[in-house]
Amino acid sequence: PYRESIRKPAEGMGKYVKQTGGHGQYGICYIKIEPLPRGKGYEFVNQIFGGAIPSQFIPSVETGIKKAMEQGVLAGAKVVDVKVTLYDGKYHPVDSSNLAFEIAGSLAFKEAESKADPYLLEPIYEVEVRIPEEFMGDVIGDLNSRRGRILGMEAEGKIQVIKAHVPLAELYRYSSTLRSITKGRGTFTMKFSHYDEVPREIAQKIIEEAKREKEEK
């Protein structure tokens, strides 16, 4: 469920060159990446002029970039909210191919992301909890312990309605906890709200876990 994004602009160079006897592979590209506002997704700008990369290979560079964005350098999560500008490259009249430029695009993005101060994002859910008044303190305490942010409370007769933003990662087994706190008298609903940055120390654990899983494969 995690995503990755970047804090600052950075540049990357991707080079895929294999020139042995016969038909080889040749693709070199230079890109710049910049952060976009949260929720903006992805933007690709082609600034190649004068045929540094022939136009038929540009879509392959972008395909490579998009493939690299599916698995970011931090934790293998999808990269979002990034503008990518392709501004230079080199080709070979015989050895260049779509494959070479696709691989070059992937390599360029990985290099750029690792230099752009990448960070992790996690899904945040809006949770609405309805409980009898006497359980207010315990339920709010539990939500706080789940890194929840209380958005507001209102009374509906003897029932209290609490709204909070809570990271999805912290909602594991929430229904059984709420049941036991409220002796089965509390109910809740949850829906996706937005992505937000994962606190540094928690992000570190997620990144280490992802690295371990990758090594075990």
TrEMBL record:
Transmembrane segments: none annotated. SUPFAM superfamilies: EF-G C-terminal domain-like, Ribosomal protein S5 domain 2-like. Keywords: Elongation factor, GTP-binding, Nucleotide-binding, Protein biosynthesis. Residues 1-117 form the Translation elongation factor EFG/EF2 domain. One of its GO terms (biological process) is ribosome disassembly. One of its GO terms (molecular function) is translation elongation factor activity. Residues 119-206 form the Elongation factor EFG domain. It comes from the Bacteria. Pfam families: EFG_C (PF00679), EFG_IV (PF03764). This is Elongation factor G. It comes from candidate division WOR-3 bacterium. The gene is fusA.
